[in-house]
Amino acid sequence: MGRFILRRVGVMLLTALCLTFIVFFLTNLYPNLEKMAKTEGNMRMSDAEVESYLKNNGYLQPTLVKYGQWLGVLPGYVIEGTDGKVRAKCAAPETPIEEAPAFCGVLQGNWGYSNRLKKDVDEVIGEKLALTGILMFWVMLLMVPSALILGVLAGMREGSKLDRTLSTLSIGTTATPEYVSGVLFIAVFASSAVGLKWFKGTATSAMDNITFENFFLPVLTIAVYGMGYIARMTRASMAEVMTSQYIRTARLKGVSFPNIVMKHALRNALIAPFTVIMLQFPWLLNGVVIVETLFNYKGFGWALVLAAGNNDIELLLGISVISVVVVLVTQLISDIGYVYLNPRISVS
After folding, report:
1. Beta bridge partners of 79
2. Least packed by Cβ within 10 Å: which of 7, 152, 215, 281?
3. Residue 339 above 80 pLDDT?
4. pTM, entire model
5. CA distance 302 to 313
6. Are strands 86-88 and 78-80 parallel, antiparallel or unpaired?
7. CA torsion sign, 263 to 264 to 269 to 275?
């Protein structure tokens, strides 16, 4: 198992480097840099002024060199600009260049500066990640148990009326996008036109003080969409287990149906849904963009939209790093958990 984990971690690190380099390459294409320069300077800047700005701030270096500096494995640039000033990537404002460290990348804890929010990127990510983490916690708390119960109930008796009803419900929730269900929930439960003002149609106040009224609708919107997929996977796994040979043997021996389900079928039926549940974390981290925008909840997804829309390169790169790490770590946990849960798999 130890070698298996080490191999997976090695693959995970290599994948992280490849993915972050792709994002870095795409965000540092010249049209993006030109737009960023004009946003920081003046939208009426000439081509020569744009090139001068980019050269003075190290953006015209080779891509691999810039990536190494951003990552923190190459020394930061020291450039004498066209205006005669010497600029260093690792020099803080009002700090002599001679006293600046040589390396100042992600590995050193320097994630850059958000030009749009006027804060350090690590500070922004910490704030937004905490807000989305709270949302993810409550979504998983509602979504996972509900989906597993629906899937198990549907799969216990394949083809029954209950199975057809719950399967239809699961397909319907999965086929309904969040922006549709979210608007419907707001119209029904938070609109004065309908008359049911039970909840608030915005979650802005939940960023400071979470209450049932201001937080339930965004949680429900995300949970309903993800619930159907987990329920369908659980139902398929449960139905397959219930037709296996050892279940037939238990029935022939006179074991009661509840004992067959609880003691024999349930554990094996939950192996496949475990992987699906772990894959919900990356989806929740970046897939809540629509819901956070709809309910004006300024979390991680909202920050991603802000960074992409305003060409905030440093913030966009920081968000991409966190996204890649979450995807790979949850995949690693999923693989390890699958090996432990499935008795038919052994790792030498």
Report:
1. 87
2. 7
3. no
4. 0.86
5. 15
6. antiparallel
7. positive
Burial class (CB in 10 A: 0-12, 13-18, 19+), 238: buried
The two three-digit tokens of residue 37, written as one number: 């320069």
Nearest alpha carbon to residue 292 among 309, 184, 284, 224: 284
Taking a C-beta distance cutoff of 8 angstroms, is the pair 288, 222 a contact?
yes
| Helix/strand/coil for 79 | strand
Contact 300, 285 (CB under 8 A): yes
Please count the other Cβ atoms lying within 10 Å of the Cβ belonging to residue 341.
15
* Cα–Cα distance measured from residue 288 to residue 133, given in angstroms and rounded to the nearest whole number: 11
What does the alpha-carbon distance between residue 272 and residue 93 come to, in Å, rounded to a whole number?
A: 53
Q: What is the pLDDT of residues 51-70, one digit of tens each?
A: 999 999 899 999 999 999 99
DSSP string, 258-302: HHIIIIIIHHHHTHHHHHHHHTHHHHHHHHTHHHHHHTT--SHHH
Continuous segment of H or E residues that includes residue 54: helix 47-56
Q: What is the largest CA-CA distance in the chain?
A: 90
